[in-house]
Specification:
- By secondary structure, this protein is an alpha/beta fold.
- The chain has one domain (about 1-284): Vaccinia Virus protein VP39 (Rossmann fold), CATH 3.40.50.
- It is built from eleven helices and 15 strands.
- The strands form four sheets. An eight-stranded mixed β-sheet has the order 5-4-3-9-10-13-11-12. Strands 6-8-7 form a three-stranded mixed β-sheet.
- Helix 2 (about 20-35) crosses helix 3 (about 60-65).
- The chain is globular, with a radius of gyration of 18 Å.
- The two termini are about 35 Å apart.
Length: about 280
């Protein structure tokens, strides 16, 4: 019951569904029925893309109910990226951001997901959408150096680099951003690694310093992470997808990632000039 209450609050407060609640709740009910009858459901998404979703994939089901689970962050990606850009998806999970970046926007994506079960789901979504030519996926964690590292298991979107308190873990491959990219400069990075952001950024000096990198979405906005990004010339912004505007500082809405931007004029012009994208009943 508690989970249903939280989902109802999510739908009622989501910018894309708060004025279209009936449609969202209808999708919720349909998903509950289909996911109990089928082990996996192919869900139509944005501009002809699709997602393979199973019960328990909390981030993916948010896309089913409300179109964009992380509204401001995903809308920023849709408005900012262009064909030929490079997107770095660190902590890709099943690939929602990867599918938006490459399947909708035509950007080249490098997606990293260390959990072997989740990696299979990521690869299947890339394959389902025919994106193998522009998406590179690696079953690997990113961090300080190369080798192997302990990673939690069976926690869905909350899997992370394991601590001494985590009893269920496995060894996964480890690489650094600069080594893994081999000189390729991303235009946008999404960094969602459950508190391991500082360690990843510590071995990303060349990537952070490259002028072609314009924006970073990071789950962690701790002082240490903020200091590293500010030292590289990034400033924290909030994004209003309906107005296509950046605002200095943190967003007022709960949840979502922190957005750090460099070369504000360039980014603002891109956001303003982006073509409209239809998501459910709304044009963005």
């Amino acid at each position: 019951m508690f989970a249903i209450v939280n989902i109802a609050r999510f739908i009622a407060g989501h910018p894309l569904t708060r004025d279209h609640k009936l449609g969202a709740f209808a999708r919720f009910i349909r998903w509950q029925l289909e996911s109990r009858l089928l082990a996996e459901v192919t869900v139509p998404w944005i501009e002809g893309t699709r997602l393979l979703v199973r019960r328990g994939m909390t981030g993916a089901t948010g896309n089913i109910y409300c179109g964009l689970h992380e509204f401001e962050d995903m809308a920023f990606l849709l408005h900012f990226l262009r064909p030929g850009d490079v997107f770095l998806d660190i902590g890709a999970n099943i690939g929602s951001y990867t599918i938006l970046a490459s399947g909708v926007k035509g950007a080249r994506t490098f997606a990293f997901e260390p959990d072997p079960v989740t990696f299979v789901a990521l690869w299947r979504n890339v394959t389902l959408n025919g994106l193998g030519s522009i998406v590179t996926v690696r079953e690997c964690a990113l961090g300080p150096g190369q080798g192997r590292i302990k990673f939690t298991r069976d926690l869905d979107t909350e899997n992370r680099v394991a601590t001494a308190e985590d009893s269920a873990s496995r060894l996964v491959a480890l690489d650094s951003v600069d080594h893994a990219l081999e000189g390729v400069v991303p235009t946008l990075i999404k960094l969602d690694v459950e508190g391991f952001e500082s360690e990843i950024l510590s071995c990303a000096e060349a990537t952070l310093g490259a002028p072609g990198l314009k924006a970073i979405l990071t789950e962690d906005r701790s002082p240490g992470v903020s200091k590293v990004l500010q030292s590289a010339g990034f400033v924290e912004q909030s994004y209003d997808p309906f107005e296509r505007k950046l605002v200095s500082g943190r967003r007022h809405s709960p949840g979502g990632n922190a957005l750090f931007v460099r070369d504000l004029r360039f980014v603002r012009e891109r956001l303003a000039d982006a073509p409209l994208v239809r998501v459910l009943e709304r044009w963005l």
